[in-house]
Amino acid sequence: MERRAFLGALTGGFLAAPLAAEGQQSGKVPRIGYLEIASAELPIAQAMVEAFRQGLRERGYVEGQTFVIEYRAAAGRIERLPDLVAELTRLKVNVIVASATPAALAAKQATTTIPIVSAVMGDPVGDGLVASLARPGGNVTGLTFLALAKRLGLLKETVPGVSHVAALSHPGVYGEHTMRDMLKEAEVAAQTLGVHLQVLETRSPSDFDSAFSAMVTNRAGALIVFPSPMFYGAHGRLVDLAAKYRLPAIYAFKEAVATGGLMSYGTSIPDLSRRAATYVDKILKGAKPADLPVEQPTKFELVINLKTAKALGLTIPQPLLARADEVIQ
C-alpha cells in the first residue's frame, strides 16, 4: 500500500501520532480520511497534508486526541481511487478530504452520506461535484483555484513578440470537464492574444524530455505550465529543461520561480489545503457540506525572477514589475 511508502519516506514520525492513537481512541475521536491522488513521497503531497494538519491545529485540534487522520494515496494511479475510498468508508471516517477533483469524484461515487471536502477543484459545477458554488447541495464542498487565461496574458506581456506558445498539461489529474475548460480557456486566450498554442500531454516525468523536444521542433517561443501536483513535485526538472531550451515559462506555483523559473501566477496549493481545515472544522461541529459555499481564490500572487529574465535576454516591462507581489533579484 502507498501508505507504507508514505510512512517510510518521512522522518520524525510524521504519522506516528495518529497511528498510535488508533489503538486508544474511544470511538468519539473523529476520523478524517485524507485521499491523495499523487505519490505520498512527492513534496507537494507532503506539503498539502502538513498544511491541512496545521489548519486543524490553528483551530485547536490536537492530533491523536481530538482527531485522527487515515491517509490513503493513489501514487498517481487514478484507477486506485475507488478501492482507497472503499477502505475509508469501511473505517467509517467522519469526513473525507480529497486532494483534488478526481479524488472528490471517486469519493462522491462511493458515498452520499459521508461529507467530502476537496482542497483543490477546477470547475466543481461542470464536473458534477456540486449544484452551485453558493449552495453545493450535496455532500461535497471545498475550494477552487483556476486562472489560466491570466497566466497566458502575463507571458505575452513579458515576451511581446512571441507567436508560438507551448502548453504543458497533465491529463487525468482533474475532472474531464475541468480539463476541457482549461484547454478551452487557454485556446480562447491564445486567439485573443494572437498566438498559436501547442498543447503537449505528459503523464509522468519520463515524458518531459520528449515534450520539450517537441516544443523546440514546433518553434515554441514560450511555455505555460498547467497546474498539476506532478508538475509541482517535479518543478526543478521543468525549470532545468526550460533553461536548457531557453524557453520563458510561467508556472502556477511560485516554488518553481524560487528555483530558477521565470515567473508564476497562482494561489498557494498548500494554503488551499490549510483552508480546507476550516470546512472540516465546521462539518465536525455539525454543518452540512450542502450549506457551505465553495470558496473561490481571492488572491493570486505574481512572482518574477529577474536573474532568470536576464539569462534569457528579457527585459521585464516596468508596469509588470510594479504589479508583482515578489521580485527575485
The gross shape turns out to be: elongated
Q: What is the number of strand segments?
A: 12
Residue runs with pLDDT of under 50 for 5 or more positions: 1-26
Query: From the alpha-carbon coordinates, what is the Rg to the nearest angstrom?
Result: 20 Å
Strand proportion, as a percent range, falls in 15-25%
Overall number of domains: 2
Largest sheet: 7 strands, mixed
Provide the CATH superfamily of the largest domain.
Response regulator
Q: How many angstroms separate the termini?
A: 44 Å
CATH level-1 class of the largest domain = Alpha Beta
CATH topology of the largest domain: Rossmann fold
Structural class: alpha/beta
> Helical percent range?
40-55%
CATH-defined architecture of the largest domain: 3-Layer(aba) Sandwich
Going across the major beta sheet, what is the strand order? 7-6-8-9-10-11-12
Q: Give the averaged pLDDT, no decimals.
A: 87
Query: DSSP helix count?
Result: 14
Order of helices and strands: HHEHEHEHEEHEHEHEHHEHEHEHHE
What does this structure look like?
- The chain has 329 residues and is an alpha/beta fold.
- It folds into two domains: 2-145 and 269-291, 3-Layer(aba) Sandwich (Rossmann fold), CATH 3.40.50; 148-266 and 300-328, 3-Layer(aba) Sandwich (Rossmann fold).
- Helix content is 42%, strand content 18%.
- It has 14 helices and twelve strands.
- Helix 3 (43-58) packs across helix 12 (269-284).
- The longest helix has 18 residues, at 176-193.
- Residues 1-26 have low confidence and may be disordered.
